[in-house]
Structures are given as C-alpha cells and as structure tokens.
Design goal:
The complex is a heterodimer of chains A (282) and B (334).
Chain A: E1 22-31, E2 35-41, H1 53-58, E3 65-73, E4 76-82, H2 95-112, E5 116-122, E6 131-135, H3 138-146, H4 160-164, E7 174-179, H5 187-194, E8 199-206, H6 208-211, E9 217-223, E10 229-234, H7 236-256, E11 264-267, H8 272-280
Parallel strand pairs in A: 4-5, 4-7, 7-8, 8-11
Antiparallel strand pairs in A: 1-3, 2-3, 5-6, 9-10
Helix pairs in contact in A: 2-3
Chain B: E1 4-6, H1 20-23, E2 29-32, H2 42-67, E3 69-71, E4 74-82, E5 84-90, H3 111-124, E6 130-136, E7 140-147, H4 150-160, H5 170-180, E8 190-196, H6 204-217, E9 220-226, H7 249-258, E10 264-269, H8 272-285, E11 288-296, E12 299-300, H9 302-321
Parallel strand pairs in B: 5-6, 5-8, 8-9, 9-10
Antiparallel strand pairs in B: 1-3, 3-12, 4-11, 6-7
Helix pairs in contact in B: 2-9, 3-4, 3-8, 5-6
Classes of the chains: A alpha/beta (282), B alpha/beta (334).
Pfam family, one (chain A): DUF58
Domain DUF58 (chain A): 47-251
InterPro entries (chain A): DUF58 (IPR002881), vWFA_dom_sf (IPR036465)
Amino acid sequence: MTPSAPPEIVYRLRERIHSHMAGAHPSAALGGYGRFHDQTTFLRHPDARRIDLRASLRDPFEDIHVRRFAERRAADVYAVVDLSASMAVAGACVKIELARTVALALAWSAPGVGDRFGLIGCAERERSPVFQPATRARAVALRAADSLRAELCAGRAADGFVATAGLLGQRRSLVFLISDFRWPPGLVESVLGRYAAHDVVAVVLVDSEEENPPDWGLMALADSESGERRLVFMRPALRRRWAEREQERQARLAFLAGRGRPPIFLRDRFDPADFSRRLLAV
Amino acid sequence: MIALGFDTPDIFWLAPLAAAPLAFSPLRIRKTAAIAAVPEDRLSAAIAVVLRIAGCAAIAALLVGVAGPYRTGALVDHIGEGAEIVFLIDRSASMNENFAGRAPSGDEQSKARAATQVLRDFVAGPRKDLAGVVGFSTSPMLVVPITDRREAIQAAFAAAARPGLDHTNIGRGLAMALAMFRADESGRSRALVLVSDGAAVIDPHLQTDLRADFKKAGVRLYWLFLRTEGNARLHDIPESGADTPQAAPERHLDLFFQSLGQPYRAFEAESPEQVHAAVEQIDRLERRPVLFTEIAPRQDLSTPVFTLAVLAILVLTLAKLAEIPAPVRRGGAS
C-alpha cells in the first residue's frame, strides 16, 4: 500500500444513471429524496411521506398529490487496464506505474462518494489476470488497484479488451480504458463498440520519449510484444515523420472517441486536478 | 592447378559463429512499446542489412585469416607468342670494337653493346619467348639455359656487353647452343640466333656432328653478322685461290649453314640501326604460339582477408559510435 492516501478525483457522469443504490450521481429514478422534480397523484406514486398538502387542498377534484424528487444514485466505476507487455516498457515513464496511480486514485475516490470500484486487467483474449468485481469496500478496491505491477504485463496483445467487456454487467457504468492504445488497426474501433453501452473514458498513456525520438544516431529497437526488431537511423527527416505519425495516431484516437468523451492523454505523469477537470467537463 | 589451402583448417569448426550477427545486434537492443510507432524507412533498413553483412564478414574474415589462407604454388601453363630462342653471342675480343674496327670512343658503341642492347629491347617486348644465352670465344660458355625468366635473360645480355676475350671458336659454340634444345619438346618453334662479327673454320669432324645436331634439333638459324667496315661481305666471292675457309671463313660458314637443310637466314649489319632492323625482322619471323610453364609461388592470402576484416570491424565500430545511448533511468528499473 502507498503510505499516503491517493489523490482524490472528482468525476461526473454524462447521463443520468439507472441504479438502485443511493449515491452521488443524478439518476433517472424519482423518489422521496433529492432534488424536487414534480408532483403527481398519490395513485401513481404512493409515498405517504411526501404528500403535498398544499397541492392536495388546492385541487378541485380532491386528488391527493405527492412530491417526487430526482434521487442521486451510486454508479459503478471500472478501470479496465491494459496488461500487454508494452505497458511495462521503461521510457520516460513506466506506463503500468502510471496506470496504477490512476487506478489507485479511482479506487480511493469512487467508494468515497458511494460508488463501487471494479478493476479488470486485459491482455490477450480469454485471459484476464486481474479481475476485481465492483465493490464499495475501499480497502478491497485499493488492494486490487495496487496489484497492478510490471510483472503482470506479459500479454502479447491487447485484444482481451473485447472479451472483458462482458464482465461489466448490463448497467451503465463509468469505464476508464487505461492503455497506451498502441493497438493494431481496427481494435480501437471494435473495443469502443463493445463498450458503447457505458460512459467510456479513454485514458491514453503517452511516453514523451516515444513522442520525441532523438535527432541523430542509430537505435536498435525491439517490439515489446512481438519481439520484432528494427534498426533505425534517426535523423531530423525521420524524426519529423515519426512525430507526424504520433500526432496522427493521437488525432485518430480523439476522432474515434469523438461521439463520447474526448480521450485523456496522460503524458509521463498523472495530474489529479487536471484529470478531474477533464472528467467534469462533459 | 592453383588451389586454396589453409595452415590450420581446424579453426573452421568455429565457422557457425559467422552466422551469429544474423541473430544478434551489435547495438544495444532497446525495448519499445510498439514498433509500429516507428515509420518505415528504407535507409534504416539498408543500414541494418549492411551491418549484418559487416558482422558476418568480420567474423568470417577473421576466421579465414586466422586459418592462414594461401594459394598453393603450382606450375602454370601459359600460351604466348614467341619462340624458343637460343642466342649464341660472340664474346671474342673483336666484339669490343665499334663497327669501324676501332676501340669505341665518345658516344660510340662497341659491337657487343650495340647488339646486346637491341636484343635486350627484343626480349623486353611483349613477346613470350623462352630464351637461352650462350657466349663463346675460345670455348663456349653457358650463360643462361632456356628459360622464361626475363630478368635472367636481361642479365645475360648485360653480361655479354662486357668486354670479351680471345678468339672466335664458332663450332663449339654452335654445339653447345644446339645441345640446349631438349629433344622432348618438339612442339615448339625453335630458333638459334648467332650474333658474331666474324667466323672461324669449323673442324670437319665437328661439321658432321653439327649437321646431325641441327637436323635433330630442327631449329631455324639466323646469323646476325656484325660486319666491320672493310671486311668481306658474306656474298663476296674472293678471287680464285683465296676462296678457302681459312681465307674467307664468313663466306664458307654461310655456305655451311646453307648446306644444313634447315631454314636459314643471314643478316649483315654494319651499324646499330641495321642490327635493330635485323632483329626486327627476326621478331617478325619468329612469332608462333608457344606454350610455356611458369612456377607460381605459394602466396599468402591473409593480408587481403585481414584487410576485409578490419574494414568490416570499422563499419561496425562506426555504427557503435553512432549509437544513441539509452537514457539513464531515475530510481533504477521498475
């Protein structure tokens, strides 16, 4: 466990949720607590505690009126973390460390406002090395988030994201897809499609070293997942192409997520305040 | 046959090492999250291929170099244009004189020097002659046996230009020159070039032997007669009574040569220019394909092989120097 408490994150859901548990988020449920919504007849909403005497007396047809309130309910927050080998590569940062920081912050914050936190680790298809169903117990959530370590990152691919969408259940949840999104073409689209029922936030972990390769020299690079090797002769022209390619990739991610929330790019470090700001700006 | 050989071929058990650069990189491998982030680049791919080849070449060349490669020595057959020629050079005292019959003064040349100078040019030309040199004065001297070593022949001519001694004993000189043609190599074109400024009486017994030798050897005979001013020409017929071998040895030697039944030509030269013209004519006449063998010495081949290894290692070193060092991580590996 980390010695100090993880940072607090504030978030908001994009739409009213459907849930049975009281919590902090606006929901579609109307009941006896919360923000006043409307009045209706007692027959429709037989809640004797919220009988509106003034409205009932005023009614010439002598119906009994009841006040309804839009209740706040609890949501499920899931962190779906990429555990492919590329997450353990040490650049300017280790991405899985960054993912762990984000997951810890969520595991701390979500139970704090009454939401449940769940954690799913994804690597190859049919294999989920880490799975913590949504829980309101903060200690359990934190322990699950803390278990995200570089040693777990052994997957050769990230297509597990497609399969693990089924673990989330039917109710609309806030889902953080935490990955570097260095996926084969088409996978991002299909994953976003599988999670379309949820409020999805793509948290794109970016290593600034990958964005800014050196100017001159030779590098022997090896892919962390496929092991494919390539010698690269860095020079300003290639560097420019490299940076353009990276920008294109990020622009494409933003485009794909465009109908939902814009992706959040975490460059080397996690800034909780900025993260919260982006989550609130929906 | 020329073949390759190695001093310690056992070293080639290590030959599979030469394939190691195909699997290992000379540069430190850096793990990257996704190779797809790297744009395709032809120049980089070409450099990768070059480095692999350089790696394989460096190891292979070092192995070959350590194994000690050499080219085995052998007898090599060559075909050239020329002939098997024996030069029979008069070394008598009269050859020290110039064409005027006096001791050379100023920039004049002695007959010996003039003749050998022309012959040296002849041998130094593009011809592929097998040549031997015999000198003779009172008795014959074997200078160089029939060989294709130009240096030896040149040296023999240089030696023949030194002042000579004594008389002209042409018969024994001819006998020795003919003896130099070996009987077994009958396929070659053979010529005997006699360079003299005079003649002498050949013993009648020796004459019969010579006739037989000439027939046996089957040589064409050229007589380069360096006539001293005032001496009789070959075809001058002296008045009767003086027409004896003793009185006109040149004419009678000419007659003897003509009677041999072998192709024969005589050239009279009265100046270095005429010697030159005569030798040019011989050059034209004696052009036939000639097969000769040469001994190619054993040759050490390790120098070019090690040079290749050094070049390959240089390429690899340059690549290593151009490598981008991996940045130092704070807090060590995690």
